Amino acid sequence: MKFKLLATSLAVSLALTGCVTQQSENTQTAQQQQTTKADERVFSQEYLIEELDNGLRVMVVKTDYPDVVSLQIPVSVGSRNEVKEGKTGFAHFFEHMMFKGSKKFPQDEYTAVFKNAGVDNRAYTTNDYTNYHLNFSKQHLDKVLEIEADIFQNLTYTEEQFRTEALTVKGEYLKNNASPIRKLLSAVREEAFDKHTYKHTTMGFFEDIEAMPDQMAYGKEFFDKFYKPEYVSLVIVGDVDPKATMAMVKKHWGGWKKGDYVADIKAEPKQQAPKYIHEQDEALPGHWLLVSYKGAPWEPAKKDRAALDLISQLYFSNNSDLYQELVVDKQIASQMFTYNPETKDPGLLHVFVKVENEEDLAKARDAINRTYAKARTELVDEQKLSDLKSNLKYSFINGLDSSQAIASTLARYMHFERDPEVINQLYKSADNITAQDIKAVANKYFVDDSRTTVTMSALDKAPGFEQEANLSAAVAKLEQAPEAPVFKVLDKTNSSPLIDVNFLFNTGAAADPQGKKGVAALTAAMLAQGGSQSTSYKEIQKALYPLAGSFGYQIDKEMLSFQGRIHKDNAETWYALVSDQLLNPGFRDDDFKRLKKEMIDGIKSGLKASNDEELGKEVLYSTLYKGHPYESYNYGDISDLEALTLDDIKAFYKNELTQSKLTLGLIGAVPNALKANIMSDLATLPKGEQSRLSIPDAPVLKGHHAKIVEKSAQSTAVSFGFPIDTIRSSEDWTALWLVRSYFGEHRSSNSYLYERIRQTRGMNYGDYSYIEYFPRGMFQTKPDANLGRSEQIFQIWLRPLRSNNDAHFATRTALFELDNLIKNGLTEKDFEASRNFLINYVPQLVASQNRQLGYALDSEFYNTESFVKYVTSKLEKLTLADVNRVIKDNLQTENVQYVFITGDGEDMKKRLASEQTSPMVYNTEKPAELVAEDKVIADYKLAIPANNIEVMAVDKVFQ
Questions:
Q1: pLDDT single digits (tens) 861-877
Q2: What Cα–Cα distance (Å) separates residue 837 from each residue in 612, 692, 848, 881?
Q3: H-run or E-run covering 370
């Protein structure tokens, strides 16, 4: 007997290719029509079909598989036809009895013939038909047809054989009843149906099976009613001559007399309420749940049946979100599968779940209920639907690799209307199904009053099942107008074919909990450089490659930005991939280990071992903000990173990546449909309460301090600075920004420090000043956007000097010039030149589309006008007096933190503590004024007390 746990009628239907020939008086016309429509057909194998005068339907298909023939004999009788009360199970019983033989071919004799001929002879029974299938070498075709024809027409058995076989069937029932799945199916059918014969399974009711040995007279009546040619089809597939085969069939089967019986199968009345029963099985391990809904009748020209099968695959297969939730992620369930048998009349659509813990039964039921509500309220993605149909089609075609596979497929459809063209009808219906059809069919069939639920376990009752699940309420909840999203949207869409998207969250490294420094960065990496729940990172990268799409992240203290770029032609595909990363992260262990290792290596080998300049700047920030949320490096401390777990990542994701902290930035020709999709998807994020991090004031810095980091280095890098109160939204920021540009514009040869230290004295590569955080400065000439901070420092960065002496002198020079700037301010000429430079330079900072978007998002953060307008308008209004006032209000040298990265820490400490002279030596003659100034600077006091100087090994930094 055949029992399929996974049966999808659509998958079965999408099968064969070729041309079709039907033997009839209209054969030529049919060939022409089918040739014309060949591209629209799925089953287009050449075949010969004929209905004999007695009603027997015969179909012959010639294949290229040599020597082998498959004979399938579907009889259109199953448990559905067992209409007489107390007489269930006879369709299945005669599946057994048909092996007893006939007077001409007794069982012993014909089985010996079959054995010698190598005939594989089997059968199975379903709700609607019984199929006898034989596979053998082609030279035995005539004999097999002769034997089977005689048995079908002249089945012979004794009372002893009848009674003995009835006991065998009882044994089979008891064997099968050990299966929890069969028990569940038996229970749900008996509960779900009141009148229709689908109430009992193919085995029948047990009390009828027990009475079967005494039902020999009814057995003969049953056989005489249903084993008639009008109920039977012959499907012959293999290495045969179709016309010769048809002649053989007529010779052996043509004299069979036609019957006239039609079973009166009662229609099932409409179910009026949901039903539930609990089955106790004291020996059963675990706990089972079966949720079943009434389905559609067999009407292949309509969409309902195919749509129901697609819904089963979309929402309940092992690729579904529900399977991932119950089995993979939460591991509530150990098993989950569907079973949707094809039935002539409306049958049942099943979802089975096995859980290990009793309290998870109700959780699984509620999850299934939510999923059905989702199917009723959402429009499934059309591409996903198309991909599923394609997958089912070609997966099944790949399995049709023998005459037996082709024949068994045809047998499964011939019993319905004894016409193989139902395959094409079903496929055509499936092919035309849209997302709207899926939703409509879900609303038609998946309603509370159509549901029957069964639980089964060793318990006397299932906890949490005192009340029925309410699908209508779940649907109503989803159909309610969604609450307005909490996140902000900066929509700068335009006609550019390039689309930039920026998911900017007002969180970052400043939100790292104590002992978990680096969790924000590792979370960001897991989202942007890790797989989603459904797709591995390798697969995502492979899919993005032909799109030339990008997706990455940038982290700072208060901003976590996920940015991507794609051409508008590929936008939908790109978004499907990256949104899955962002909103349905896989949090895979292999990604976690890989990215953690990369992050730790980035600190050890990238920052600490080979980037002295960035190291110096980061140590300066960390030192100035000791005990403050800004203290840790954006990518964390090594020991904290090593101790992080996946649960830490998941917790940060849940708590920090919320709608309230999100601003969505869009620019380029974003299609309206995609925009709506993005909005809808982001609304699924937790709302959250805090819109941005609460950052305290910087720690108070008093006096002069120095931190010396000793490492293997041939030069000495220098950074120093102090906290300031002025940030971009401050009234004085633009004036201070101008002062910064005059004094040390990044990577510019026009700035004052550059001219005094590099240009005049040739001491290093460059010397710059900053009033905002500017990472990665050695690699780029313009600052990145999305580094907004509530606290900033004034910083001077001296690129590596040749020796500790030169570093000491250059630091003194920078302090000397800063003191002069504070004392004297800018001249009118310097002011005008700097202002004119910035007015013309500012537009370059937003010259590209993604920088326009990034700076616009920063303006939202600081609550200012657009960057260019904001800065330009203030620059135009500035006066020299404004600028010189701002210098005195913001700049000072009484409280300064110095950082030196050097190969000899003790030497540097000695120089600083003793105020050792740092003479400047040139390899060429210099002007007298410069030499005189050098003598002053060589002894210029940094005034750093010895107990304020700390030397630390690089191994201890960010450890």
A1: 999 999 999 999 999 99
A2: 31, 34, 20, 19
A3: helix 360-377
